[in-house]
Amino acid sequence: MALGFIFEGIANVIFVIGLAIAAQMGAQTERNPAIWVVRGFAWMVFGAAGGVVYGIVGLSAKKTLYGVLGGVIGAGLGGLLFDPIALLTRGGAPSRAVGFALVGAATGVAVGLVESALKDRWLYVTAGPLAGKQFILYKPRTVLGSDQSCDIYLFKDSNILKEHAVIEIAGSRILLRAVGETYLGGQPVRQQVLANDSALQIGRYAFRYRERQRN
Fold this sequence. Notes:
By secondary structure, this protein is an alpha+beta fold. Helix content is 48%, strand content 22%. It is built from 4 helices and 11 strands; from the N terminus they run H-H-H-H-E-E-E-E-E-E-E-E-E-E-E. The strands form 2 sheets. It has a 6-stranded antiparallel sheet, with no helix packed on it. It has a 5-stranded mixed sheet with strand order 4-3-5-6-9, with no helix packed on it. Strand 10 and strand 11 (205-211) form a beta hairpin. The longest helix is centred in the middle third of the chain and has 28 residues, at 61-88.
């Protein structure tokens, strides 16, 4: 909350300074695109705050980077389009509702795009209730299990332990440590280094471990 107030204050200062500069250039009303650009820059700062919170919640420096970049892009786009929307809807509450909804949607999409562009290692779910979903491996230690506090929550399977397996990043090695029954390439394992395209099975869930190929 305090972080949000700090970034909001900085954004307001930037907005006021930007308006003064735009006014000197002849931009007097919201019909001038210069005002739209000023608001876009100011909202970028506020979007960065949301990205920082996103990273803090995820306990990951890399997730913070993704969140900040996504927040800046999304909020900047929302700020840039806020005044045109207000003009089209003739101002008032509807324009604000649409504007802020756009910021939220654009920020979410931007964060997702940034994550996909910068991800290094991830698990892709090929079977089970989460089929089609991917989990980017941000942390040095990612826990998979049936407890809701796990990084990858595997539900609807009584055979899966609360903390069933852990994926650890140690330098260039990605190590799987299994507590419960876990299969890698169809063979039961307790501890194994993962390679790109490794097939992992935990209960009714099947995964493919993927990593970015470097030239």
